[in-house]
Specification:
It is a single chain. The strands form two sheets. Strands 1, 3, 4, 6, 11, 12, 13 and 15 form an eight-stranded antiparallel beta sheet that branches. The protein is mostly beta strands. It has one helix and 15 strands. It has a single domain, classed as Jelly Rolls (Sandwich). It is 11% helix and 40% strand. Strand 12 and strand 13 form a beta hairpin.
């Protein structure tokens, strides 16, 4: 009887461990080596690429204006990404729910990283309770949780049922309910050099 009980307990431990592992499973979007799985969209392509890979980071030069997006669309997910300014805070953003028809600028929801509007949600998609064909929702945080230039900021964006919740360095910066619940994920090049890494979904 003791053997059976111990065996049962072992099975329970294994099952629990498997469940925890399943919950922790992640899908890596950026391999740190090249831009496989990504699509670049810029205003006027030049000899020097707007997006490149260096030391395991996805680098955006800031010129010309544009963005890079995933080849695949995503719905309910939790996006993890680290980012840092290379030479001063200029302008960039993280996109979710980007729609078809690649153009500068695309239709989707952008978490704004520009210092003057940090944490704002800019959206070409309708956001509940926000007026205008182009929605602009102010940040919810009283103080900018951004770290000093050159330091890596940790960002988590949770998308569930069209609801978007964005946290930076553990601080809730914004949230909104969107009319759309699926789209591409992307990063913006708009005037300043910025780097992204540790890009994955859970």
């Amino acid at each position: 009887m003791k053997i059976i009980i111990r065996f049962t307990k072992c099975l329970a431990v294994v099952a629990t461990s498997f469940a925890l592992f399943a919950c922790d499973k992640k899908e890596v979007l950026f391999n740190g080596q090249d831009l496989t799985g990504w699509v670049c969209v810029v205003q006027e392509p030049q000899d020097e690429p707007t997006f490149s890979v260096k030391d395991g980071a996805l680098c955006a030069s800031g010129q010309p204006f544009g963005y890079i997006r995933t080849e695949k669309k995503y719905g309910d997910c939790t996006l993890h990404v680290s980012w840092r300014w290379v030479s001063g805070r200029v302008d960039s953003g993280i996109f979710v729910f980007l729609q078809d028809e690649d153009k500068v600028w695309p239709t989707g929801i952008q978490l704004q990283l520009r210092e003057s509007d940090f944490g704002f949600l800019f959206s070409g998609l309708k956001l509940e309770g926000v007026e205008g064909p182009f929605c602009r929702k102010e940040s919810l945080c009283e103080e900018d949780p951004e770290l000093s230039d050159g330091q890596w900021n940790e960002t988590v964006i949770v998308c569930k049922g069209g609801h978007v919740t964005a946290m930076v360095n553990g601080v809730l910066v914004n949230e909104a309910q969107c009319e759309t619940s699926e789209g591409y994920i992307g990063f913006q090049s708009e005037g300043g050099a910025i780097e992204f890494r540790d890009i994955y979904l859970k």
